[in-house]
Write a structure and sequence with these properties.
This protein has 319 residues and is of the alpha/beta class. Helix content is 48%, strand content 9%.
Length: 319
């Protein structure tokens, strides 16, 4: 089983606040979230009827990922072309229900969502990834055992608490809420602003937090992530890749694709792209590519092994 990452500073993806998909038509197949109740997955019913489940698609995925700034989520990637892969939901959903709203489950049928398939490029199906503060964290492939699942979820929620992601989804009488007493008021203000799509207000709150406490690492990371969100909003991934491929020395095009790669979890691809641009350019253009790569190192986090390797590659390209 793949162990969860020890650091949350990895893939970042952002958009508007996630919303549940519309209810399926009568007689339809696997569909979006239902009202949930006694017939939920834990009682052996349809996992899609559970109150902890939403269905993600190409249109809503970035929104659902961004919601993980407030509520931890598990994205179960399966395919209706391989019905047995849906068994992962039958294991993950009851485990999430036992956590009483501490984690959201996002069901994604890759057979009908090619955009997500292209962005995440899962090595197999089914596979479950954690979504936390807009970052994708590989958790486990295939259908986990109950013992492995409980252990991984415990570690995942410990990471969530460490990062201040303590919101809940509504389960029965439990109202979704952010446990604000565990966060500074400015951090709460920033997360609330991200949820309503006001990135400028979120950035202002994080900047104020840093003014009050220059050593506030969470505020620094939050500001870096919000900046990444802002500069990639509305960008078409395919068009961006085509522009970068047309001219490998186009620094602006390379920067945009690198940002999108970090958003999609392809951190090493992003670093390698900008290192290549540093090698291929001179003077001002080289300086811009280097500066942006250093910014992305900050977004991912100095302790991440990929950043250490990226710094080594950058030094090799410069000298």
């Amino acid at each position: 089983m793949t162990e969860p990452h020890s650091s949350l500073r990895g893939a970042v993806d952002l958009g508007a606040l996630g919303q549940p998909a519309p209810a399926p038509a009568a007689g339809g197949g696997a569909g979006p979230t239902g009202a949930g109740g006694a017939g939920g997955a834990a009682a052996g019913g349809d996992p899609f009827a559970s109150p902890v489940v939403v269905v993600g698609d190409d249109a809503s995925f970035n929104q659902l990922v961004q919601r993980s700034v407030s509520v931890p989520a598990l994205a179960v990637l399966w395919s209706s072309q391989s019905p047995q892969s849906r068994a992962a939901l039958d294991v993950v959903v009851p485990a999430a229900e036992r956590l009483q709203g501490r984690v959201q489950v996002v069901s994604i049928d890759l057979a009908t969502n090619p955009g997500i398939l292209q962005a995440l490029r899962p090595p197999q199906m089914p596979i479950t990834i954690g979504l936390l503060q807009g970052q994708a964290i590989p958790l486990f492939p295939d259908v986990p055992s109950a013992e492995d699942l409980d252990r991984v979820l415990a570690e995942f929620l410990q990471l969530a608490v460490k990062q201040g992601v303590t919101g809940r989804v509504e389960v029965g009488d439990l109202v979704a809420e952010q446990v604000e007493e565990e966060l500074s008021p400015l951090h709460v203000e920033a997360y609330d602003a991200v949820e309503r799509g006001d990135l400028a207000a979120a950035a202002a709150a994080f900047e104020q937090a840093l003014t009050q406490n220059p050593s506030d690492e969470d505020a620094r990371l939050g500001l870096a992530q919000v900046s990444l969100m802002a500069r990639t909003q509305g960008v078409d991934l395919q068009q961006a890749r085509e522009a970068a491929a047309a001219d490998p020395t186009d620094v602006d095009a390379a920067i945009m694709v690198a940002d999108l790669d970090v958003l999609g979890g392809h951190v090493e691809d992003a670093f390698a792209r900008l290192v290549d641009v540093v090698r291929a350019t001179q003077e001002d253009e080289r300086a811009r590519a280097k500066a942006h790569l250093l910014d992305l190192f900050e977004v991912v986090g100095a302790q991440d092994e990929r950043v250490r390797r990226g710094r080594t590659a950058l030094m090799s390209a410069l000298f």
